[in-house]
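Example 4.3 (complexes with small molecules)
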Amino acid sequence: RVSIVEESIECLRRNDLGGYTIPAHNLYPFQWNWDSAIVAAGWAVFDEARAWEELDTLFSGQWEDGMVPSIVFHKPSTTYFPGPEIWGLPGNPSRSTGITQPPVAAISARFLFEHTENVKLAEKKMTDLFPKILASHRWWYKARDPENKGVVAILHPWESGMDNSPSWDAAMQFPIDNLPPYERKDLHHVNASMRPTKDTYDHYLTLLYRFKAENFYDSEKLYWVSPFRMTDLCTNSILFRANRDLRWLAIKLGKDDVVKEIDEWLDRGFEGFRQLWDEKSGLYYCQDQLTGKLADAPTSAAFLPLFAGVASKDQAAKLVENLRRWLDNVPFGVPSTDPKDPRFEPLRYWRGPVWIIVNWMICNGLLHYGYDDIAQRIYDDSVALTSNAGLKEYFDPKTGEGCGGELFSWTAAMCLAWLD
Ligand code: DGY
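Answer. The structure with (2R)-2,3-dihydroxypropanoic acid bound is encoded below.
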């Protein structure tokens, strides 16, 4: 693994545009929220100061209301659509998107704090970051759970990070608006078979323009007007885990006054997750908040409540039973959709391919619940995939072929922080 470690360091340096790391050149040329928070853990392995800087730069894009946007547009680029002129206006580009992404920051900050060799720096940085991360969690509850469900809503598939997951198929049937003509740039960089379809993009853009029309992404309004409103397992599992890690940081930093508030989020989250469990199939599902229906798609997000630590022992056992079956059906795990499901597409982004960061979250959860053998199997698959195919964005579970973007930052970060 010596060479992949060197290659990973080289990859992060190459994708470093000065205080922030782009996920990959051309395909994603700005700072993405959850990518960056994960990438910080990779930097921490060889340059702690740079790791903290990644989070600082991400939070420099935080909105006044507390939201951390999904993309911060620090410097111009012509290789991405929809860029700052679409989110803003031609001639008046936006500094960021008007939507968010899974809140990994607290998880990352705890990782940095626990692995630090420079406690002084870590304490200084955390003192600065803590109130910002806290404000972002408060934003989630205020803007995305105004009805006190205990679980938060996403309003755009891009917010989940799992853009074209089959979990959104039914909810994405709303009619598309009359859109200004547009040209996708992702297809210049990656084969169309590995990306979302045109129909999916038309829906993505319909949402974008509708949200822009709400006084440029007014958080108070979007929840009530969006034709897409889901309880996403990925976002909620990450938020639940992030709350636990924020609580840990609060105690470390002597901020006991906020522990009660975080405990309430955790208690309510625990209740909220109950509705997402389906005893019959032994899986969790996302829920359409507008119809109340569970999305029936079996996706890898179903295993993320293990990472959150919100599943009971019995639920964990049922999840593991499913997971074993999925792994027995493909040479490389974990596929992002059950390989026996008709919606499984081994190359198409979040409809089948393996993502190393999801493997990391699932393994972390499995170890917590005591399933060391299956965690080891996923770890070994992750090592094999990255050794054979390199630092690709995602991987075909049937062949191990690398797909999507090349020299991908969060895959590199996982090789450094996890698969070393
Ligand atoms: C995309 O594919 O453009 C999204 O922003 C990534 O989530």
